[in-house]
Specification:
Elements (H helix, E strand, L loop, with lengths): L3 E4 L2 E4 L4 E7 L8 E7 L5 E7 L6 E3 L7 E6 L4 E6 L8 E8 L12 E2 L3 E6 L1
Parallel strand pairs: 2-11
Antiparallel strand pairs: 1-3, 3-8, 4-5, 4-9, 5-6, 7-8, 9-10, 9-11
């Protein structure tokens, strides 16, 4: 069982940056690949980024590639999402999730989810 708690969301102007954090409970954090997803109002939840168990491999949605960076600190049981050059289209609730698979972009592959943190980008 893994419990995930996101933080770091908020209101930012277009072009700004935010850093999201996701703290995980338990002593098996390093055995999970981690992902970030987002859900905009009236839309489905979509993949944003994922990172492998040791952090050596990452994957990004095309919409965020080059602007967002996912990282993890297994000693702190925490995964991060650095978001730069934000646009209003990035406005959404951001969720972190844990997967027992290697590196997966499908939400169905994630067994554990946080409650989400709101990110709002004003124009």
């Amino acid at each position: 069982q893994v419990q995930l708690v996101e933080s770091g969301g908020g209101l930012v102007q277009a072009g700004g940056s935010l850093r999201l954090s996701c703290a995980a409970s338990g002593r098996t954090f390093s055995s999970y690949a981690m992902g970030w997803f987002r859900q905009a109002p009236g839309k489905e939840r979509v993949f944003v980024a994922a990172i492998s168990r040791a952090g050596g491999s990452t994957s990004y949605a095309d919409s965020v590639k080059g602007r967002f960076t996912i990282s993890r600190d297994n000693a702190k049981n925490t995964v991060y999402l650095q978001m730069d050059s934000l646009t209003p289209e990035d406005t959404a609730v951001y969720y972190c999730a844990a997967s027992g698979s290697y590196l997966i972009t499908a939400g169905s592959g994630y067994a554990y989810w946080g409650q989400g943190t709101q990110v709002t980008v004003s124009s």
